[in-house]
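testing teh design pipeline on a random one, pls ignore if ur not involved
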């Protein structure tokens, strides 16, 4: 079964080239790709592990941010 690259949701029934389940996940996939490609800070995160830590924190808080704005809660990341 094909799954979203970011959250693992099923992509059954989606177009073949679809890699992610939503705009939020697509933005996340592109951010992680940039982090991996650049080796430098992207959107305030210095490495993929930083970003994943932040996402795990979001999951714990239940709520995934709205796709608007493009700045996925950098203020939250600084609270750690
Ligand atoms: Zn997803």
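output:
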């Amino acid at each position: 079964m094909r799954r979203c690259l970011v959250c693992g949701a099923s992509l059954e029934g989606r177009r073949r080239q679809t890699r992610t389940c939503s705009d939020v996940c697509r933005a996340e996939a592109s951010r992680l790709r940039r982090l991996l490609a650049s080796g430098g800070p992207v959107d305030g995160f210095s490495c993929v592990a930083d970003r994943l830590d932040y996402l795990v924190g979001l999951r714990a808080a239940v709520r995934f941010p709205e796709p608007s704005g493009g700045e996925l809660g950098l203020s939250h990341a600084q609270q750690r």
